[in-house]
């Protein structure tokens, strides 16, 4: 990282630029697209890569899953009747799939040539974020996809910078201060050697062939692939398929970047927008929101985790602003290493699980969830279990004895309770699996250093960049106000309406 970063106006940089965004229907990608269209309508073109069979279905996805969202209401208000012509002038749809090789599955050769000729910036936001995604899919998108995007970038003759969006949790279950350091190819978290991405791909193909030869059902193949991902991740010290494949993605990008200017951005847990285009826009159940809503609906009666632990959250608009500023700061920068930015709040302005509990209690006491019976759901303090052992004991006392009893009654009553038994059994297995998946984060003891990100913020201030427009300082957030008045209402409105 150079001691002093000099860069000019972000808005000026964006003017007349061609930018490719992969994973264009994703949460952050939409916010990125909206921000650019709203703040710099003189951008030349935004090429949006999305998975679709053809141009027609790509266009449908754009309108249903991107432009059609409430998120774009300010842009629509501004352009009114001219919205459609503005969109068709600025947005180029690219049907493709980053897991399909170095040409990103783009079939249209004219379009491909045009991108290689015209692109100034690529922002890789395509990812699959399920913790226990099928291993073949996760490796295809998060690892090989990252490699394919980099290879595509190298063919773009005037490309100035590639921003690859990763996740802070590539660090696995490390404790203490986690630095903004790159992952070297083949480096593992537990020191086990032999991690080789081509080898992982080969293992997947062998497993798939073997399953197909046995005539396994689609469901059985899916489960086997999910299990394989978790198992391979654990061999090398990562807790789940998602962070393992994202870590390998970073390795490939760093290893193959050559003299391309590459920024790797690692956000922590991304929450609803803080200010723009308006506060509280969110989509899909993000990690901690499942807990909030489960609690509001009266389903979450106990919580497993370190209640005093820090939960690192950062609003989505701040992540997008960090992407944009980092992109401008590293135009045509020649360095051997990728530049890494961790974007979170745990070092500068931490929130704890106990705060979240208070915010949830305050919000749902004042605005209770209305249950199916039309009655408000009463919420109270949640029972906190602070170890896996106490959680297993709790589950055993509460459910497993009941399950045992049901099993005996079921046999005695000629399987009269079959449905009930399998239902409860399924629910218990579901909860146990969920807990296994989330356990690393519920007891997470790390905080994410953001020294590089802070240097970027300082440089933006020193260079008088439009800091009010591209803000990404978590210190400016009043957490209680944000959670009680912005985030939880946003989740209730957009995710669980």
TrEMBL record:
Its job: Catalyzes the reduction of fatty acyl-CoA to fatty alcohols.
Catalytic activity: a long-chain fatty acyl-CoA + 2 NADPH + 2 H(+) = a long-chain primary fatty alcohol + 2 NADP(+) + CoA
Protein name: Fatty acyl-CoA reductase
Limits of the Thioester reductase (TE) domain: 21-323
Keywords: Lipid biosynthesis, Lipid metabolism, NADP, Oxidoreductase
BP terms from Gene Ontology: long-chain fatty-acyl-CoA metabolic process; suberin biosynthetic process
Known EC number: 1.2.1.84
Domain Fatty acyl-CoA reductase C-terminal: 404-497
Domain of life: Eukaryota
Annotated GO MF terms: alcohol-forming long-chain fatty acyl-CoA reductase activity; alcohol-forming very long-chain fatty acyl-CoA reductase activity
Family: Belongs to the fatty acyl-CoA reductase family.
Pfam families according to UniProt: NAD_binding_4, Sterile
